[in-house]
Amino acid sequence: MPSRRTRADDRGSAELAIATPLLLLLVMLVVQTVLWAHAGHVAQTITHHTLAATRTVDATEADGRATAEQVADQLAGDLLTDVRVDVERTDITARVTVQAQVPSLLPGLTWPIRHQQEAPVERYVPATGGAP
């Protein structure tokens, strides 16, 4: 039969058994959120560079896609998966949408990323007449 002193020494062990997994889950959630935020910045950078390449005077959608692949290869690494870049260019505007997934530390959760930017296309307008 255990003594009274042994029972008193076991106090708090049930709380610790519950608190430890919850604390680990909280830490993993914080780390996952930081990874998701960083991945968002990477996707935003890919979008920005792709839009800049797409909206120049003589650029095409293919030029934008090539830039997107190059920047994604340099920056994304293993941080972004299933990266999809949509490039649209008209005579007036250029639009780029980047969609990707962030690998999850917590099973069963998905962490999507989506960034879209639109800007006017650069165009050359010849000067008319003389200087003002």
List the helices and strands and how they pair.
Elements: H1 4-9, H2 13-54, H3 61-75, E1 81-89, E2 93-102, E3 111-120
Antiparallel strand pairs: 1-2, 2-3
Organism: Spinactinospora alkalitolerans
Protein name: Flp pilus assembly protein TadG
Domain TadE-like: 13-45
Provide an overview of this structure:
This is Flp pilus assembly protein TadG. It comes from Spinactinospora alkalitolerans. Residues 13-45 form the TadE-like domain. This protein is an alpha+beta fold. The protein has one domain. Helix content is 48%, strand content 22%. It is built from 3 helices and 3 strands. A 3-stranded antiparallel β-sheet has the order 1-2-3, covered by helices on one side. β1 and β2 form a beta hairpin. α2 (13-54) packs antiparallel against α3. The longest helix is centred in the N-terminal third of the chain and has 42 residues, at 13-54. The protein is rod-shaped, with a radius of gyration of 26 Å. The mean pLDDT is 85.
Could you list some keywords that capture this structure?
132 residues, three-stranded antiparallel sheet, rod-shaped, 3 helices, Flp pilus assembly protein TadG, alpha+beta, TadE-like_dom
Would you tell me the overall average pLDDT? 85
Q: Tell me about the largest β-sheet.
A: 3 strands, antiparallel
Major sheet: arrangement of strands: 1-2-3
Proportion of residues in β-strands: 15-25%
Unreliable stretches? none
N- and C-termini, Cα separation: 105 Å
Oligomer: single chain
